[in-house]
Amino acid sequence: PSLLAVSAPLPPQEPSEAPPEEEPAAAVLQEEAEPDAPPPEWRIGSGPWDEDLVALRSSDGSSWERVGVLVEGASLPCACRFADGALLVAFQWFPFDQPEAFQRIAVIRSDDDGATWSEPTTAAFEGLPEDLGRPSGPCVVALPDGRLRMYFTAREGHGDAEDGAVRGGWLATWSAISDDGLTWTFEPGQRFGIEGLDVSDPTVVRFRGDWHYLAPIADRVGAAFHAVSRDGLAFTRWPEVEVRGQGPWLGSALAEAEHGEPDSFLRFYGTGRVGWSAISRDPRDWRVDGRVAWSQGDRPAVVALGDGSRLMIATVPGAQRRDADRALLEAMTGGPTVTMTANDRFLYVLRGETIYMYDASTLRFLRLKRLPPLKVGDDEDTAPAERSGEGGTDEDG
Predict the structure, then answer these.
(1) 332-347 pLDDT, tens per residue?
(2) What is the pLDDT of residues 58-97, one digit of tens each?
(3) How far apart are CA 103 and CA 93, in angstroms?
């Protein structure tokens, strides 16, 4: 398949008189990106920091073809189109080599309908209340006046603690406005929230003049909170919507045209073992469209391209988790270069210079550790725990 390329970073927000730096060569998106060397300590696995964003395209909206990796170490994508036709993708970013950007919302932009993309740039927020936690789970929509609005999840209470955690209050939806997709100005007031209940990761779509808000209900798979607003700011809660037998409402919605008529129906792309889609001509009632499915990628963000095709940005396991899956499979099938040991709590697999740790009862990947290179005189048969200087029977070793 054809591969996407990454173009130069987004331009600075203020002009500079310094001569422009030489533009870096375009980087090709890879199907199987090699992981960067992690820090020497145990690195936690099976989290959003070990997911990648991939691009898929569809000419008919039903069958999807993977194009390549778009961003490594990222999750919860959303996509929208500027009034000038440019595409913007916002997501939660986890770059281990940029601590200041870790777990922040970042954006990339394409000016050629998704053929090339800028490097990720963290979004700047202005006017956030001091007691509001860190924004996450972005959903960006284009407004009729050409600006962008980002709906995001945050916890009102004590804000960010020194260790980066957020304490107090309940997760709810807030918003910020932007002209360029880089700098976002907080809009006072809460867009949607339920006292005593966390609500997160919504999608918002404009349909027949109204803005429709949909957010997954944590304890009801296949169900979503639903609210409606005329101005996109003041939402009125409507009865929940549900599609039985499907996964959570983690994804995106598009207003679709039919027979040349805009806003004919809404389509939602959701998350499950197999990606699912539901359609609605009345946003209070949805039905599954079994013709639309895809086998790879969760939390899909879908946007229409200029030629009528569709671009999907979805989340897949990152390189670290793919390596862990391969190591466990080789250990289970008796791979000659893999060693496995276990206690009543954890399973350890040594593959090359890496120890992978799994939950012994569920085989869920927990974390990995790179071993230091053997020094001259070291016994190659030394046990992994001895070589690493760590114990091999507790969670931290």
Answers:
(1) 888 888 888 888 899 9
(2) 998 888 998 989 998 899 999 999 989 999 999 999 887 8
(3) 5
